[in-house]
Amino acid sequence: MKWQTITLLLLLITLGLTAIAACAIGPISIPFRKTMGILLSAMGFPSFTSFTDRELLVVTEMRLPRVLAGGLVGAALGVSGGAMQGLFRNPLVEPGYVGVSSGAALGAVCALYFGWNQFGSWTLPLSAFLGAALAVMIILAVWQKHRHKSIALLLLLGIGVNALLSAVINMLVASSNSEQELRSIVFWLQGGLEARTWHHVQLIALPILAGCVILFTFGRDLNTMLLGDEQSTHAGINVDRMRPLLLILISLMTGSAVAISGIIGFVGLVVPHAVRLVTGPDHRFLLPASALGGAIFLIWADLASRMMLQPITLQVGVVCALIGAPLFIALIMSSRRGGALR
């Protein structure tokens, strides 16, 4: 247990250093030491270095909200992926498999297509969140009414609903009225953290942080569920009640994340695998490590999207796919030697 606790502490320290580095690096470069002083000053602590008003504005109003938004989104996707892989006893499952991502995408695309986003900045994330919640509710309702409520059936329902919602999204994209509207939809579907402000951070901080804390308390139950539904029932776990509850909680977290970031893949799939190689399959450590790992991964991916092709900015969803796909292939290959996908 001691080395797992040390791993969590190292991940927490790495996350802090990553956040500072992401606030320091950019077209306007600010030294690491000076960035630390600015962040300490912003938190009310005495600063050990001097800085200009311009540097303070760049760090606290432009970069820090984007870094925090990326960290929260990455944490939500990472911990949700780890929980779902345990819940379904399948290492290839991630939040998008139960309609969360496609539902959020459809909600956001509808907001852009029908012009709802003109009513305020909150309409796009709200539409995305409602779309995610509606998709999961439909899948759970159909699953609950079926005679055999198996895990395989739930995944198949998720795949079917994903295909249906993707078809509707493609239909809306094809019938887009203007180039600007089409560009907005495509950029959102690719995932990005551009122009994220403190408003976006405040919008997702509570549901994601509260969701993470609640999910952490289910670590022992998820460990037991790895043995199968029958053994879990004998151990006193109400599987039929717990599985929908966890799915709704995961949907709340990922729906909130996707609502401000767009579709970002591979974080919920790759990060739990990589973390499992270090912490092992114990969800009491795997879930918090996946949250920290997801935050670190997405902050670095967003930094790469800003700096790789300056002055061109890539979408962070594209960068995550470029990094995540090779990592996932490597993890699959390692499973042949008794690695991550056991």
Summarize the structure.
With 342 residues, the protein is mainly alpha-helical.
Task: Note the gap between the termini.
Answer: 21 Å
Structural class: mainly alpha
Strand-and-helix sequence, N→C?
HHHHHHHHHHHHHH
Instruction: Choose one word for the global shape.
Output: globular
Question: From the coordinates shown, what is the CATH architecture?
Answer: Orthogonal Bundle
Unreliable stretches: none
What's the helical proportion of residues?
Answer: over 70%
Number of DSSP helical runs: 14
Name the beta content range.
Answer: under 5%
Radius of gyration: 20 Å
Largest sheet: number of strands, sense, barrel closure: none
Number of domains: 1
Fourth-tier CATH superfamily name = ABC transporter involved in vitamin B12 uptake, BtuC
Q: What is the third-level CATH name, the topology? A: ABC transporter involved in vitamin B12 uptake, BtuC
What is the tally of beta strands? 0
State the name of the first-level CATH class: Mainly Alpha
Averaged pLDDT: 86
Secondary structure elements and pairings:
Elements: H1 2-24, H2 32-42, H3 53-87, H4 100-113, H5 123-145, H6 151-174, H7 179-190, H8 198-216, H9 219-225, H10 229-234, H11 239-261, H12 267-279, H13 283-307, H14 316-335
Plain-language structure description:
The protein is mostly helical. The protein has 14 helices and no strands. It is globular and about 65 Å long. The model has no long low-confidence stretch (mean pLDDT 86). One of its GO terms (cellular component) is plasma membrane. It comes from Paenibacillus lentus. This is Iron ABC transporter permease.
